[in-house]
Specification:
heterodimer; A: mainly alpha; 4 helices; elongated; B: Rna Polymerase Sigma Factor, Chain: A; 10 helices; 0% strand
């Protein structure tokens, strides 16, 4: 995955290494802009970013759940016995 | 509508022997601790055991909380220790990927960057496929080494800052960010392989 890039533009490898900082908004304005320029001109990196973001999002969704009421009751019952009745 | 009491105020009340204050804290954090435990252990029964131990430990050790960090940071730290203990006792940690797999992900000399197949976006919009992928990702998260799994869960699911995650795990900020990036790349790679049909 590579394409022609200018001297001040990050390489595909550098983009790969900076993606987390990019999506977390931790890059400087200059770095963010040059990385965004690279992404706009490099379809493989742009696609990589899409799957990087999609994996985060899907995984987050799969892990986002509230504690089921029956488990909450068991937790509370356990702690009542261990703490509140002691 | 009662004003929500600050964690620190509740902690002081617990220290003074007010068990009802602990109940308020427990209700405030039980979903969060459970999500962390499920993210780390997958199995809900195992997770419940860890959550029970975590809250019991929080109650018993509350006098050792010095207030140098937020109460929630300390609670996550105690909870994570309970999860680790449970994982050790059940040898679940043996099912994770070797650390070398994660190390290779950011080693340019050893990494082949997998590219997504054509039409990926269209396929991911399909609800059934999304559910299947979600299950695959649960497996992938469980395959992460424990520390990476904890970082990913705390950062992505609980939406803590990198600094908060670093404080909970006792890592430097730089190490936390590097491991988070590796975990994200690892999961993307697992998803990409699944979509290409060769990792199911």
């Amino acid at each position: 995955m590579s394409h022609q890039h200018g001297p001040s533009e990050p390489t595909c490898r550098q983009v790969f290494e900076l993606l987390s900082e990019f999506v977390d908004g931790e890059l400087s304005v200059d770095d963010r802009e040059s990385l965004a320029r690279h992404l706009g001109a490099c379809p493989p990196c742009e696609e990589f970013l899409k799957t990087f973001e999609a994996a985060r999002s899907l995984c987050r969704e799969s892990l986002l759940e509230q504690m089921p009421p029956e488990l909450k009751e068991r937790l509370r019952s356990f702690l009542r016995d261990q703490i509140f009745k002691a | 509508m009662p004003v929500t009491e600050l964690d620190d105020t509740l902690v002081e009340r617990v220290r003074a022997g007010d068990k009802s204050a602990f109940e308020v804290l427990m209700h405030r954090y039980e979903d969060k601790v459970f999500r962390l435990a499920v993210g780390m252990m997958k199995n809900r029964e195992d997770a419940l055991d860890a959550v029970q131990d975590a809250f019991l430990n929080v109650y018993r050790k509350i006098d050792t909380f010095r207030g140098e960090s937020a109460f929630s940071t300390w609670l996550y730290k105690v909870s994570l220790n309970s999860v680790y203990m449970k994982l050790r006792s059940r040898s679940r940690h043996e099912q994770t990927e070797p650390l070398e797999v994660l190390e290779k992900i950011l080693d340019p000399a050893k990494t082949r960057i997998l590219m997504p197949p054509a039409g990926w976006s269209t396929r991911a919009d399909n609800e059934l496929l999304r559910k299947e992928l979600s299950l695959k990702l649960r497996d992938a998260v469980e395959a992460l080494p424990e520390e990476y799994r904890a970082i990913f869960t705390l950062r992505e699911v609980e939406e803590l800052s990198n600094q908060e995650v670093a404080d909970i795990l006792g890592l430097s900020l730089a190490a936390t960010k590097t491991r988070l990036h590796r975990a994200r790349l690892f999961l993307r790679q697992r998803l990409s392989k699944y979509l290409q049909g060769d990792a199911a």
